[in-house]
């Protein structure tokens, strides 16, 4: 069962382009992005591995149930609502808006943007309202189907003739520049897949252990390096800053010579449609279950039929997406994403601190038995 956690690490690392992480790093490529990424790799890896070790002490329990063991109920309720409303729900809203606009601009710019959002938000809302075990199975299927194509595209980009390694080496020379806090905070997002354990740890049985933990820093480091350096290699040290849809234009700079497939852009957007919906499904599902736990503390991993409250909360998330599109544009969306990345970083530190305390209490309890 531990393999499911690595699926979350994988798709979160890939979806960082929709949270504008590469754009933030590119803006600071001469002013500390390199050192900031190195610091983020260390911080992100330590936080991810520490959280995974802590959750091993509580098989079958999500973070809300663990909080109930050691904290007052009002504080558990506050934590659940805070994380749901300000972290998990906005993450899905930002990504579904960002990707619906991206795919509309490249595929059918004359289409009504609300119609495109309806298709994506509707699919994500329906999927997020399913049971936790069903959502986990969807994660596995989508990740296994998408990953090989993504790695082919990445290998094509890295080893293709159009990548200018001199531009990459030039930017790498700014390693001594001190990074900003925003650089470090945003770069750690690529390691944040472990936060899915907040809910999905309920699926782990007694005695489970995470094996191959080295995959977490490996995935994070790989995706962070690729999403930052590849656009620089394709567009140059100066030209890379001029693109709004950075990675979409980077994909459009590549060509696949495999049968009827020529432009990488179409394959890229198709694959990331699935990954974006996967991310939104998971963030809204976690948000729904956190709200439900705060309301009545009665949540199980298998629920047949699906409770009506799941459907209503999922529909509410979809409606919020429409309100967000009405009030925002791509420039403001990038600002909101930046604020969310910083807020997420602080929230992860708080939750890690809580989990370290809970794990210490659990070990102390076992020692006294």
Automatic annotation (TrEMBL):
Name of this chain's protein: Uncharacterized protein
Highest taxon above the source species: Bacteria
Transmembrane regions: 7-26, 32-55, 76-99, 141-159, 179-200, 212-234, 264-291, 311-328, 340-360
Keywords: Membrane, Transmembrane, Transmembrane helix
């Amino acid at each position: 069962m531990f393999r499911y956690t690595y699926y979350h690490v994988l798709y979160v690392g890939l979806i960082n382009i929709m949270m504008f992480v590469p754009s933030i790093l590119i803006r600071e490529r001469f002013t500390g992005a390199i050192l900031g990424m190195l610091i983020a790799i260390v911080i992100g890896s330590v936080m991810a591995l520490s959280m995974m070790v802590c959750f091993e002490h509580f098989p079958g329990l999500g973070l809300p149930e663990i909080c109930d063991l050691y904290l007052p109920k009002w504080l558990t309720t506050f934590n659940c609502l805070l994380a749901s409303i300000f972290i998990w729900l906005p993450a899905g809203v930002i990504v579904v808006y960002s990707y619906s606009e991206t795919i509309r601009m490249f595929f059918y710019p004359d289409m009504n943007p609300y119609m495109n959002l309806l298709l994506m938000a509707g699919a994500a809302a329906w999927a997020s309202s399913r049971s936790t075990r069903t959502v986990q199975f969807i994660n596995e299927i989508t990740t296994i189907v998408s990953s090989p194509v993504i790695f082919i595209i990445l290998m094509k980009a890295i080893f293709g003739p159009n990548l200018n390694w001199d531009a990459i080496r030039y930017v790498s020379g700014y390693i001594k520049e001190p990074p900003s806090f925003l650089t470090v905070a945003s770069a750690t997002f690529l390691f944040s897949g472990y936060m899915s354990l907040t809910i999905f740890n309920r699926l782990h049985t007694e005695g489970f252990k995470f094996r191959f933990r080295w995959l977490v820093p490996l995935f994070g480091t790989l995706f962070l390096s690729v999403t930052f350096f590849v656009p620089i290699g394709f567009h140059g040290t100066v030209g890379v800053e001029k693109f709004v849809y950075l990675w979409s234009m980077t994909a459009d700079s590549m060509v696949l010579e495999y049968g009827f497939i020529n432009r990488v852009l179409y394959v890229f957007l198709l694959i990331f449609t699935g990954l974006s919906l996967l991310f939104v499904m998971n963030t809204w599902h976690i948000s729904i279950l956190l709200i439900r736990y705060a309301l009545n503390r009665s949540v199980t991993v298998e629920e047949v039929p699906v409770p009506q409250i799941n459907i209503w909360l999922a529909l509410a998330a979809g409606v919020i997406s429409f309100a967000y599109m009405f009030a925002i544009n791509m420039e403001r969306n990038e600002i909101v994403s930046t604020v969310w990345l910083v807020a997420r970083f602080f929230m992860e530190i708080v939750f890690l601190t809580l989990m370290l305390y809970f794990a210490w209490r659990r070990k102390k309890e076992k020692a006294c038995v």
